[in-house]
Specification:
Length: 884
């Protein structure tokens, strides 16, 4: 009752407020009288911008007063009108003249270079300054998103028929959400979105769909990563990916605007194409309209119109983002339109001479600069390069990179001793924000509805009535027991309540099928129960059974764990089971590799043994950046023999190998182990923030390597006969060396200081991939050794280095640069006491799904090897057999 009263009062107050405002409305057409869709209307005094709809109609609510309104659209001359809003305002007819760009005054250089390149050099040189120009703003933003489902494939209609029916989704429907938001931005990336009013007929509209649009609005096109996977036309290196053509210049209002066509040197998701309009002398964006072709039949079109919100300060005042998809019979589109009104705005005065300084209360205290000498050196270089009025391409790139480094150093220095948690994106919805009254939205909507959206609003009442009828009917969701039974049979997850969750691979789990000569056909699955109490603990119970039909052995693992949520992050786990693991557990043949090789080529790759165990483990963070892991294991190991002789092919010409690793050091008999192990890892992390009393590393700022050291000790006692001690230590590091570039390093030295009694299952083994086609990630894996060649119970040294880049050699070629591929150079070193060394290097090309590489290697005997490898790492996430 009270909610209805409050809602009525809020709507009444809105109408009361609207009655003191006048409507500035009209239509924008071209000289032939045809509507100009998506034209921009900008009110200078209010820093308020909006867009017309696809029919050229616009509508703004303004208080009485005098305003300067700018009507503009890309390809047309801007029209500026002085408008007085009084008691009544008649609809306006704004006619925009086509922009005739002047090319007569364009001077082409002696080298024949298009003048657009000189303009773009200035833009690239200034981009880092504009990227850091805005320090703070608060704006009222109207966001409208429309979803059109043009077609739904038969397969989706069949597979998701229940969901489609329950949600009311129908082919050919248009769904719409509109919201009034308060957006607060604080540099460099903090965004608070408060939804003040929202209206939606999206299926299952429990949450706002506007976050994608907010990311676009609060983003910054001057930043190198502004276009996602695509190369930015405003970043250093742009000339390697794009050509630019000046299509003319024209005085637009009081500024000289150059229209530049962006021409990609290839096609695909790494490129954008379209037009950008640049204000000369300021070398900033006036407006932009670009399109990006994503993979899988997805196209994205981005349009922004800028307005001079302060003297020499041009910011986006209207935004339009359109996503179109056509894939496997499923077609549709999503359209976002936004209207922005800046309330508060603070800009960096060092970039904009006419801008005022921020209030003292909002200025951050200066922090000691650990890298002041480097910043001074960069500033001297920047001043020298800035002195050039017409920079070369190299000078523009160098200056842009220097300014990016300066901003990065400033950020690092400001955060080194700042450990306050700042939520980067926060979405809040007012309790009375959901208003569905048509009259209310008609009174506040700054962008008139398009024809298809009007139909969507009309059908919304029918849809809401249908949903209410369904809610009141006897149709009820599946009961908890029925949902749990479905998860048990086919897999998935069932949320029992807010703290309890059950998940499983299902009894009908196709990835649970495997084959080996030891167990024959094997089938396994997994069931997991989690209990999560926010801020306190996480408990887990896990059970993974499997059965080998040839060995007739039942294999299983089970574990019970408890994890704390504080700074120490205490983790306890008790586990046990009976398994048939590979002697080379970490780097032997994957289950799917062994199954395919055994069945198709009659070559068994894995060497298995029986392992029955009970283990207790504990993990703790004794201090920030460190982790101490310890465990105690009681186990019994038994050698196994082949039990199956089945294969599809080569039955008469090949024989399976015995279930014994091909190593001269092989030793195995039935025995028991009592093993204690401990490992300490530490990564210096001076950059962190504190959230709920817990220290959290700041992403991307802590670049120091991670160090680790550990001990593994077999204790002879009673029936436990093994006796050895092994120590190891090393480091690993991964750093971004540039946009789309990464360097990964890893090195480890270890030694068995004692080995009085040890068996092959406790040897140190190394990850290997002798197969031409395999499933392992190329990093950390030796491509040209066999699984057990270098297994050792003595000392060893292994090291890896991997450099990857999105744009290096072959990805520059027209045939390949359109794909989301990376090139990789890798180098691996393995040295084993009394067994020699192995050095290999390789070059790879691919992505996270697959990688094709060529490798070459040499060993201590002077033997050279080379080979091709196709890695499909996605299979490494689908372990088929029961593992540790």
């Amino acid at each position: 009752m009270w909610f209805r009263i409050i809602l009525i009062l809020s709507v009444t107050l809105s109408f009361s407020f609207a009655s003191h405002s006048q409507v500035l409305s009209g239509v924008i057409t071209d000289e032939a009288g045809k509507p100009v869709p998506w034209a921009t209307v900008f009110v200078k005094e209010l820093m308020y911008g909006t867009v017309a709809n696809q029919d050229g109609a616009f509508e703004l609510k303004l208080d009485a007063g005098d305003y300067t309104c700018v009507f503009q659209s890309m390809g047309y001359q801007a029209e500026t009108r002085q408008i007085s809003i009084g008691e009544a305002a008649n609809p306006m007819h704004i006619q925009l003249k086509s922009m005739v760009y002047n090319l007569s005054g364009v001077v082409v250089s002696s080298s024949g270079e298009d003048p657009a390149y000189g303009i773009m050099r200035q833009v690239i040189r200034m981009a880092p300054q504009y990227a850091g120009m805005v320090k703070y703003y608060k704006a009222d933003v109207y966001i409208r998103g429309s979803l059109e489902l043009r077609s739904i494939s038969r397969m989706v209609k069949w597979m998701a028929r229940e969901d489609l029916k329950e949600s009311g989704i129908r082919e050919g429907d248009v769904y719409m959400e509109e919201s009034v938001n308060e957006i607060e931005f604080t540099a460099p990336s903090k965004v608070n979105q408060r939804v003040k009013s929202i209206h939606s007929n999206f299926p299952r509209d429990d949450e706002s769909k506007s976050s994608a649009a907010v990311g676009y609005i609060s983003g910054n096109l001057y930043k190198p990563d502004a276009f996602g996977n695509a190369w930015s036309p405003f970043a250093p290196g742009a000339f390697s990916h794009y050509r630019f053509a000046l299509e003319g210049t024209r005085v637009n209002g009081k500024v000289l605007v150059s229209k530049i066509r962006i021409i990609p040197k290839g096609k695909g998701p790494k490129f954008v194409r379209g037009h950008v309009y640049i204000i000369e002398d300021l070398w900033c964006i006036h407006s932009i309209d670009v399109q990006e072709e994503e993979q899988l039949g997805v196209d994205i079109r981005l349009s922004q119109t800028y307005g001079e919100v302060k003297p020499s300060v041009w910011l986006p005042v209207s935004n339009r983002m359109k996503l179109d998809m056509d894939l496997l019979g499923n077609a549709g589109g999503f359209l976002y339109n936004t209207s922005v009104r800046y309330r508060d705005l603070l800009v960096n005065t060092s970039h904009i001479p006419a801008a005022e300084a921020p209030p003292v209360s909002m200025q951050l205290p200066a922090s000691p600069a650990a890298s002041q000498a480097r910043r001074d050196r960069l500033q001297k270089k920047a001043e020298k390069l800035t002195a050039s009025p017409e920079p070369t391409t190299s000078e523009a790139y160098r200056l842009a990179r220097i300014r990016q480094k300066q901003e990065a150093l400033k950020a690092r220095d400001s955060l080194r001793n700042d450990h306050q948690y700042v939520e980067r994106y926060k979405l809040s919805v007012d309790s009375n924000a959901r208003v569905s009254d048509t009259a209310f939205w008609s009174s506040i909507r700054p962008i008139p509805l398009a024809r298809s959206e009007v139909l969507s609003v009309v059908r919304n009442d029918t849809l809401m009535a249908r949903r209410k009828k369904d809610a009141d009917s006897t149709i009820q969701p599946k009961p908890a027991k029925q949902r749990l039974l479905s998860v048990l049979l086919t897999g998935g997850m069932s949320e029992i309540d807010s703290v309890n969750r059950f998940s499983s691979n299902g009894l009908l789990y196709p990835f649970g099928v495997s084959f080996s000569t030891v167990d024959g056909l094997t089938y396994g699955t997994r069931f997991t129960y989690n209990r999560f109490k926010t801020g306190k603990y996480k408990a887990m119970v896990d059970f993974a059974p499997a059965f080998g039909f040839a060995s007739r052995d039942f294999m299983w693992t089970t574990s019970v764990g408890l994890e704390g949520q504080g700074n120490l992050k205490n983790k306890f786990r008790i586990s046990g089971g009976s398994l048939h693991p590979d002697f080379n557990r970490e780097g032997g043949a994957m289950a799917i590799e062994n199954a395919l090789s055994t069945l198709l080529f009659r070559q068994n790759l894995s060497r298995l043994y029986q392992y029955d165990f009970i283990r207790i483990t504990h993990s703790i963070q004794p201090f920030f950046g460190a982790s101490l892991n310890s465990g105690l294991t009681l186990s019994e190991s038994t050698p196994l023999q082949n039990q199956s002789d089945f294969s599809f092919f080569y039955k008469d010409s090949r024989s399976f190998s015995p279930n014994i690793p091909a190593s001269p050091l092989y030793r195995m008999e039935r025995h028991r182990d009592l093993i204690f192990e401990m490992e300490l890892t530490y990564k210096p992390m001076p950059f962190y923030y504190i959230k709920d009393g817990v220290k959290v590393p700041r992403r991307g700022l802590n670049r120091a390597p991670e160090f680790f050291a550990g001990i593994r000790k077999a204790i002879p006692s009673g029936s436990f006969t093994t006796d050895f001690t092994v120590l190891h230590a090393g480091l690993r590091q991964e750093v971004a060396t540039g946009p789309g570039e990464r360097l990964k390093l890893e090195a480890e030295y270890g030694k068995f200081v004692t080995a009085a009694r040890i068996y092959s299952g406790d040897f140190t083994h190394f990850s290997a991939q002798p197969l031409t086609v395999g499933g392992k990630n190329p990093f950390n894996t030796f491509q040209l050794i066999n699984y057990y060649d270098y297994s050792t119970n003595e000392a060893w040294l292994r090291a890896f280095a991997n450099y990857s880049s999105r744009y290096l050699l072959f990805t520059r070629l027209p045939l390949l640069r359109n794909r989301l591929w990376q090139e990789q150079f890798s180098l691996g070193l393995l040295g084993v006491q009394h067994q020699g060394y192995h050095i290999e290097g390789g070059f790879g090309l691919g992505n996270s799904l697959y990688n094709f590489g060529i490798y070459s290697a040499v060993n201590d005997k002077g033997k050279w090897q080379w080979g091709f490898r196709l890695a499909i790492p996605v299979f490494s996430t689908r372990e088929i057999t029961v593992g540790m």
